[in-house]
Amino acid sequence: MVQPDGSQIVAGVERIVGTIDGRSGSFVLTCYGYGDRPGAGRGFWTVVPGSGTGELAGLRGRGAFTVALGPDGTWRAEDSFTHWFDK
What we know:
Blueprint: E1 8-20, E2 23-37, E3 40-47, E4 59-69, E5 75-85
Antiparallel strand pairs: 1-2, 2-3, 3-4, 4-5
């Protein structure tokens, strides 16, 4: 959602299929993000507990992201992700 002052709010759910530390499967992330000016934003994501499948069963984690529109008109992103597995 873009507000009249140009700030943004985003919320979402994503299903990721891939490999983490040599373990393959899928999991679901929820995210919340915001931007205080057009062309830039930041946010956080969390692994939905119990959503891991295959070898990613028991995956837990959280992360953060920033996005910015570069001078060449392309989007640039930086992400961090900390994860662990339930015992």
